[in-house]
Amino acid sequence: MNQESEFPFERARRVTPEENQKFRDAIAEQFGVTLRKRGRPAKDEEEKYEPVSIRFHPKIIAWAKEEAEKRGIGYQTVINEALLEKIG
Fold it and tell me: What Cα–Cα distance (Å) separates residue 82 from each residue in 15, 21, 76?
């Protein structure tokens, strides 16, 4: 490999989960630092939404989409907020 060429990515392999864990453990041991996992933190069980399939009258969907457009959010969020408000 000469100085001008790029890294040969076609010959590279992915790091296995086991190797990744070994790297994390070594960093924690050597530097006393634990690396945080990337991505969105997990929600509590009561905060998780349950996927459902439901049919609404077209007027409800039109209203929700109109409200969502005004507020710059998703129409399903508008429906969810309206239902949560109704139950208290």
Answer: 46, 44, 10
Query: How many domains does the structure of the chain reveal?
Result: 1
Q: Decide if 35 contacts 22 (C-beta within 8 A).
A: no
**DSSP assigned state of 85:** H
Q: Is residue 3 a part of any domain in this protein?
A: no
Write down the pTM of the prediction: 0.52
Sign of CA dihedral 70, 58, 80, 53: negative
pLDDT in tens, the chain (88 residues): 456 678 888 889 999 999 999 999 999 999 998 878 789 888 888 888 889 999 999 999 999 999 999 999 999 999 999 999 999 8
